[in-house]
Amino acid sequence: MAENGFESNDDYEFQLRCLLESPSRGIRTLNIAGEGERRKTAFANALARSLDFPHLLYHDFTDESPPLPDVILPPSRDELGREEPPIEPLDQILSEACAQSEGEPTVLILDQLHAADFREHIRIHRLVSSCYWDVKDGRYFANARHLLLFLISEEPLYHALQKESFRVWINRASERHLDYRPTEFGLTSQAQPLFDALAQLFRELDAAPTRSEFARILSDLQLHVRTTEHLQLSLFGRTEGLERAAIASPEHQSRLTSVVDAAQTLLVTEHIELSGSPDHKRDPE
After folding, report:
1. Is residue 50 within 8 Å of 1, Cβ to Cβ?
2. What does the alpha-carbon distance between residue 28 and residue 164 come to, in Å, rounded to a whole number?
3. Which range has the top average pLDDT, 35-49, 72-86, 196-210?
4. For the segment 118-151, what is each residue's pLDDT rounded down to a tens digit?
5. Given the DSSP bridges, would you call strands 132-135 and 138-141 parallel, antiparallel or unpaired?
6. Exposed site from 39, 85, 161, 190, fewest CB < 10 Å?
7. How far apart are CA 7 and CA 153, in angstroms?
8. What is the pLDDT of residues 49-93, one digit of tens each?
């Protein structure tokens, strides 16, 4: 999922096995809850792309200018010559999802569902439980074996719809702390004091940087960070979910200093080892 835009130390394998491998009477539905704001959207898109389904459809209920469909139908008229209103964006995307699922696996993401009219919640529940979607006088049937539905809402779902869904929680940032080792980043055991100082700092800050975030912080420590103020800026710039006020709190200053000192010691040690290595050749006098 990291390759598709969502990186986390937290493991979601169990939740996904429950969703994808358990018996289901209707359409498998994942309710993506949590405090992650648009991080939930990133999770949904990354998961959908990681599943490598042929079709990925997306609808945001807060989007006032949704993209035009691939096929724009001309306005129709009833038997009295009255022009019928155009198909609503939700009806358009749901009917397309149903049609696509008839032939190939399809993922549909319905984002910001809290902004939808409550009657739409009821219609979505009927789709999940009965596998069809009504649009005016037409009915579109979904293949429950092929269609996967992701629901994202900042508020609790309609009760019946929640009962038909499997809920997963997405945090603002990773909660699982990983113990990184110098060899994982191409460094020797000389870097262990720096890794220990960083681990102690992150525990104090209650932060759990991902592997890529940690690698970028290491790079900053080697190339740019020379003061605790520099380190504060690097930590805030690189670590998702880390609050600026927490980094600047006086209670963490000694830990910040320990990290900067360890980084400076490592740079000096590496320089001495390089200049004193057997392969180092002195310039002829």
Report:
1. yes
2. 8
3. 196-210
4. 999 999 999 999 999 999 778 999 999 999 999 9
5. antiparallel
6. 85
7. 21
8. 999 999 999 999 998 766 655 555 555 565 655 556 667 899 999
Q: Is 163 helix (H, G, I), strand (E, B) or coil?
A: helix
Look at the chain and count its residues: 285
Count of Cβ atoms closer than 10 Å to residue 41 Cβ: 21
In eight-state DSSP terms, residue 170 is: E
Cβ-contact 153, 30 below 8 angstroms? no
The rounded distance, in Å, linking the Cα atoms of 123 and 109 is 16
Output the six-digit token pair for 276: 């004193």
Distance between CA 245 and CA 233 in Å, rounded?
11
- What span, in angstroms and rounded, lies between the C-alpha atoms of 186 and 178? 17
Which amino acid makes up residue 23?
A: P
Q: How far is CA 215 from the centre of its chain?
A: 19
Is 0.90 topped by the overall pTM? no
Q: Could you give the CA distance from residue 76 to residue 232 in angstroms, rounded to a whole number?
A: 61
